[in-house]
Sequence to fold (573 residues):
Amino acid sequence: MPHKIFAYTRVSTDEQAASLDGSLANQKYRIKAFVDLKNTQDKNWGEIIEWYIDDGYSAKDTRRPAYQRMMHDLKRKKCDLILITDLSRLSRNIFDFCNLLNDLEKLNVKFLSIKEQFDSTTPSGKMMIYNMINLAQFEREQISERVALGVHSRAMRGLLNGGRSILGFDKDPSRPSSYIINEKEAADVNRIFRHFLNTGSRSKAIKEIEKDGIKPKFSGKNGKTHFNDKWNVQTLGNILTSAAYIGYHEVNRCNKNLDQSKLKPHQQYKLVKATWPAIISEEDFENTQLLIEQSQKLERARLNDKEDRFYMLTGILRCGECGAPLVGQAAHGNTQIKRYYGHTHAQSKNGCTIQRVSSDEVEKVALDYLWQAISDAGYLDKIEKNIKQVGNLKSINLARDKKHLKEELESITLKLDNLLLMQQHASSQEGLKMIVSSFESLSLQKKDRESKIEKLNEKQDKRELISESVEMIRENLQEFERGFKKASKGMKKRLLRSVIKQLVLTAEGLSIFMTLADGMEIPIHQMRLVRFEQKGKDEPKIGFALARKGSSEDSNLLALGLDIGKIGCGGRI
Fold:
């Protein structure tokens, strides 16, 4: 039986993509030629059924879109062989590579490198492969360290290593690695420090700053400066703590709060004299840092004295009317502190029916639903049956890959147009040859992107998306069942988020959106929670029950219901 082959190619930068030896076009040519040769030697040896191309991604980790898509497709058992030009294309990290080999072994999938051609099924072959990956990782880390040392050397001389200009400064046109003072903005910076020293509070200082009409400064990717209308505590804090305003450059600022004795010399935090002049006096800057430190101590003390409050639905619970997130909050009742989820102060002006809801009750609804789903033997059958009724299924990952390919295609087309212009003005035979060679390479890349887009247009298979989504829900529920009860608070939140993508609260109930495969999205996919109240002799008994009937617009999946009490709204949902 012929091999079903996934071909994987990768380059880390645009410069590598333009070079002949490591270009994507060259890798693709070598893989095609190798498969043709094998088929000549052994009839029906194999067929390439899919190409996976990562353009401009490093192999230091697995955060590569085409690589992730390939690993996802492997689980569908679409292939039995991964083909690459050399091992460094696939990985330059020994830990990631070991995990990859384990995954391939479980899936009964082999991989073959054209350059090395070691047999990964034998001990000696595995040893040689690991050695090659170790060397690739060593090479990558050496390059990374050389770059880091160069960056550190410049920083220690008080020079900038890229970045954008900050309020009060502009980049020096004659020396982009330094600043020059912007007199108008420098006056604004002085007023900002003065407001903070006078008020002692960032939130109060922001009010005074906005009264003065001072706006935060940002620089776009093209270097064009623009000003935002809104200040926040973080934006102001970045200015108040920046030593650039007293003529100093902070080297490795991101490592400032780490244990310096455990860092290498080029990783340690240093404060060195900068190549630009100061705007703020050192006395004002020092007083500002003391005020900030005192505020942080008071805040830490307040939080340490505060009762521990855990909100497991933060980040996934939203208002169904305005779409805003409902965040965990607390209020002091007559006898105890009450926890709830509600709109922020700014969002409360939206006039939504529900402003806040008891956290205990809404969390119980979500958890009861999941435990009921786990105990219901026919739950996954209901899921599959109801998703099949939905006509408008979309794969978000597929759309993202398609968008990325279209952007690459536009870039390649622009480069080809530029080469045509250069060809008309080429003054030497050697220059003309280089242009022709680049043109051929880019033409191959263009053809590849066009073919890839065409395949993506034909690829979406509703049946596969449904079966994968049902399987993902099953796996997520199993993991939730195994670990939730004994998990830490942080782990409980992660387990819950792995199963539930979003909860939407409306006056009619709570809609639960489950996490589906391949980033799949069902625009009308909802599971409504229905009220269930049984009147007894004493108090009404609140419980849950299966929804009996629902329209295709709001009940594609059968759901459980439970009353949720509202705080500050009156009545019941």
Notes: The mean pLDDT is 76.
